Amino acid sequence: MVAALGLHRGQRVADVGAGHGYLTFRLADAVGPEGLVVATDIDDEALDALRSHKARNVVVRKVSPSEPGLEAGSFDLILLSEVDQYLPDRVAFLKKLKAMLAPGGRIAVTNRRGFRPALAQAAEQAGYQIVAEFNELPAHFLLFLQPK
Q1: In this structure, are residues 40 and 65 in contact, taking their beta carbons and an 8 Å threshold?
Q2: In sequence order, which residues have a C-beta less than 8 Å from that of residue 65 and are 6 or more positions away?
Q3: pLDDT score at 55
Q4: R_g of the chain, CA atoms, integer Å
Q5: pLDDT tens digits for 71-87?
Q6: How far is Cα 95 from Cα 59, in angstroms, rounded to an integer?
Q7: CATH superfamily of 3-147
């Protein structure tokens, strides 16, 4: 999964809804010490687990369910892994993420295949196009989105 994201050393990545960090620290390894991963979540227990790792290139932030909590124009990749179905309004959230992408930045969304139609529809309504899809994950999709 991390290899499919095509990350490079020095990139800035956001792990939205990072949970306990299953992907966060793999992303941090992929971008190396020159890069940065901002891991966000709404759950204090998950945030405590993230903070306990003390990775130098990981910043942990508590956010609200409807606010990404990310800097404008800053991220090469924003990852939503098994989280989009919990967003109060997928379309509104995706619209907010546009401003947080660096030039050429992408959104990557992975989830169980049953959630793909709703995500694809929300992405279209939010003004994104699907620029790539990776289908090698068992029972999951991985879509790459960029603003139109």
Answers
A1: no
A2: 42, 86, 87, 88
A3: 85
A4: 14
A5: 999 999 999 999 999 99
A6: 23
A7: Vaccinia Virus protein VP39 (3.40.50.150)
**In this predicted model, what pLDDT tens digit does every residue of 90-109 receive, in sequence order?**
999 999 999 999 999 999 99
pTM of the model: 0.96
CA atoms within 13 A on the CB side of 47: 13
Sequence-distant (≥ 6) Cβ neighbours of residue 12 within 8 angstroms? 31, 35, 36, 37, 38, 74, 75, 76, 77, 102
Measure the CA–CA gap between 137 and 134, rounded to whole angstroms.
8
Task: For 80-133, give the DSSP string.
Answer: EES-GGGSS-HHHHHHHHHTTEEEEEEEEEEEEGGGHHHHHHHHHHTTEEEEEE
Domain chopping of the chain, boundaries = 3-147
